[in-house]
Amino acid sequence: MPLRFAMNSLTIEQQPGVRQKFTFVGWRDDGNSFYARDASGMAKYVELRAHYPHNLDTGYPFEFPKVEPVEIFPVLLVPPTCGFSKQDVSGFPRHLDPNLHFLYPQPEHEEALRRSLKEFQAKAAKECAAEIARLKKTPGFTAGNKAAQQRQIKKIEGNYDSGLTLTLDQLKSGETTAAQKLRDEVLVAAWASETGHDLKAMRQVAKVFESQWWTAAGKGRRMALEAMRDAQSAVRFGIRFAVGGTFYLSHVSIRDLTMPGDAEQFQKLVAMIQPETTGKAGWHTPDFRVVWRQGRGGRSEEHNLTNEFRAVCLLLEERPGKSAQYAELEAKIGIRTRQLDELDGHGSKSSPASPRRVRDLLKTQEGRRLLEWGILQIQAGVGREKFLKVCPPTPGA
């Protein structure tokens, strides 16, 4: 069952600096695409592709939280891959275009590479001299003969020799691990300066994505770290929501309604749209942040839902008949709650994505209130099965 939203503005920036204006209509049933109207009023289908994994605890694929998006914008989480030359693309990620996402030393980098090499070798020479000076102060060194002392000094110098004798060509080719790191730092810094990317901000956003990725994987995650790194490198867009928070995408496409059922579902969503304001027809905000009851003089009572119960209501609202079996809900409540916490900016304090027992939730003070208001209703199924349904509240005083 599609969720109801007020038709608010949405901007999509597929190419840097080219912002298209749309009006958001509603999410499709697949949970990974939505309908919108462009500036001329034409109906459009916006497909999103993300590299978040299936949840290994439940087996469910990743779905975006069914809240209203307000912006899709270009973003990178990691800088381009670096190498020795344009042909040095062994192991390059298949989902990236080497012409756009690969850096290698070019004539304009020569001065920065020379300067970086000089600073690196000066630092290495200083560290080598300091280590030798410390050695000469040890009792074991002063007590030894000159030949033994020279052997100890040579051993320390040998540890620094590869850095102190490093040539510019060796630096460019990344001959050693240290040389490769140094070269890549120069190339990435030049790229960031040219393109205006903030490397510190990119690292911070990458950490947010990493947290979201592992949350999507679930407690039973056994995925290699490389899979998460590949997912980070695939990110090209962010999608920001009206309630706050951002998720990350590898692809965005906008097309006309050509698939079977698109036009019908679009019209159904348009017919369902209701304002977020007060009024006898409404009893909750589109994101279920607030619910209320109507009395004779308007709203008689209202309640701010916690993200756990927002998750319950959103999940039920998406279901046919707005009801679901306890067991089906329990596997998804934790995942949706965690998503809502992250959208609210809770960060490391976000709730765990583990399953929640519906019976335990309904025993809480908030659960009892929603049952009393009639917003949540328990329905009997076959045998011992129980279903939970979300409904408009009973009138207040």
Structure description:
With 397 residues, this protein is of the alpha+beta class. The chain has 3 domains: 9-79 and 208-268, no CATH class; 98-196; 274-390. It is built from 13 helices and 15 strands. Helix 2 packs antiparallel against helix 4 (146-164) and helix 10 (307-318) crosses helix 11. Mean pLDDT is 83; it is low at 1-5 and 274-280.
Which regions contain 5 or more consecutive residues with pLDDT less than 50? Answer: 1-5, 274-280
Distance between the termini: 31 Å
Largest sheet: number of strands, sense, barrel closure: 8 strands, mixed
Topology pattern, helix = H, strand = E: EEEEEEHEHHHHHHHEEEHEEHEHHHEE
Structural class: alpha+beta
Q: State Rg.
A: 29 Å
Domain count: the total is 3
Number of strands: 15
The DSSP helix count reads 13
Strand portion: 15-25%
Rounded mean pLDDT is 83
Shape: elongated
Helix content: 40-55%
Query: How are the strands of the largest sheet arranged?
Result: 9-8-5-1-2-3-4-10
